[in-house]
Every structure is written in structure tokens, then in C-alpha cells.
Amino acid sequence: MMIMRRQQLKELIAGGESQTVEFKRKFTSEEKIAKEMIAFANTNGGYLLIGIDDDKKIVGVKSEKEEIDGLENVCQYYIEPLIEPSIEIMSIEYKDVIVVHVMESNNKPHRLVVGSDGAVLKPNERPVYIRQGSATLQASKEVVKVLEARNANARPVTLSIGKHEKRLFEYLETSERATAKEFADMANISERRAVRLLVRLVQVGAIRIHTHEKADFYTLA
Q1: SS3 per-residue string spanning 70-136
Q2: What angle do CA 149, 105, 207 make, to 5 degrees?
Q3: Helix axis angle, 180-187 relative to 191-203, nearest 10°?
Q4: Domains in the chain, please, with CATH?
Q5: Residues 6+ apart with CB under 8 A from 171
Q6: Lowest-pLDDT range, 26-35, 98-107, 131-140, 144-153?
Q7: Position 201 pLDDT exceeds 80
Q8: Mean pLDDT, rounded, for 33-40
Q9: Is 146 in contact with 189 (CB distance < 8 Å)?
Q10: Which of 53, 62, 96, 118 has CB 3.0 to 4.6 Å from 57, enough for a Cys bridge?
């Protein structure tokens, strides 16, 4: 179990929201809290601080029990596979702040099970979220495939560098980035096959995937 010191908490707050830190003034809704926890588990892990405003102001929480009950409800019913964060109540400036520490998961991808209307989503409609900078974003199909490939239970990847991969590397050396569609066009293969090859290259660390509002793109690692 994580034990955070008060100085560590002060440093997290002073640093502001980031790839690994998210502030919430209060427990908003189960769905929104679940998205943040999912994103941390699917990315690099992080801290959800409840009782901190976006401007770093410490406002505290009114009822620690209600907040923690809500968090436990989120973990039990809103996320799959299960996430078990470390939850602490810390006093700072005479106010109580809830610190939720979510570790990066080895069981990716985690998905949202319950929608905004409280209804359970169909298995093929359960979204995946990731952390990008200080934002939580819904993952694209390509990113989901990369997360699946990084699951601890995924089969070890075997990859031989053929003409398609060589063409991609040559293109990235000059153009610096490429989308799955661009790779498919230059290699004259289907976009589905292009994504499979790209995911394998990401898995072995040869290239990196970057999420974007319009389309994901890949660069050399």
C-alpha cells in the first residue's frame, strides 16, 4: 500500500495537472472518475487528487466516506478488468484531500463498463481511455490494439523485417511520421494489414505511436 508524505502531496499539487496527475474539486460522477482511473492504468499510472481545484487551490472534500464509497463503487462496477488503486485521506492546510494512486497495469486495456445513463454497455461498445499530457482521451482502434499487444499475457512477438517494414523505415527517416493509411498506400497493402505490422513494430520498440485528435501517427523510436 502506498504511503504518501505531506511534502510529496504538496509537490504534486504545485506541479499541476500532467500526464500522471489529475485534479478533481469533488467526486463528479462515477463515469468521469472511471475514465480517469482507466486512462492512468492504460498509460503510465498516476494520481487522482480529489479536493483540489484546477487552479491548484486546496478545497478539500466534505465527506470522506461518501467519496471513498463512490470510488469503491467505480472500481467494482464501472471498470474491466478490475483496477485496485491505493486510496488515502490526507490532511493539508486543515482540509482533507483524497489521494488515489493508480498503477500502470499489466492487464491492458481497461474499459468503461457503464455509460453516462447508468446502463451497462455492450462488450463491443465499451470504450478504452488513455492519458495524453494532462488530458484523458478515448483510445482509437489502433491504440487499443497496441495496448492489447502490451498485455502481460500477450504472446511474445516475432517479427522479421521485410520489404514493407524497410519501406516504412526509409519513409520515416525522411518524412518523420506516417499514418496507417499512408503506410498502407506506400506499401500497397490493406489498411488492416498495415495496422497489424505497425502494432508489431510498436511492440518490439522499433517505432512509436502518437495519438492525435484526427488520426494516430507513427515515428521512429
Answers
A1: HHHHHHHHCEECCCCCEEEEEEECCEEEEEEEECCCCCCCCEECECCCCCECCHHHCCEEEEECCEE
A2: 40
A3: 110
A4: 6-138 (3.30.950.30), 163-220 (1.10.10.10)
A5: 178, 182, 183, 186
A6: 144-153
A7: yes
A8: 97
A9: no
A10: 53
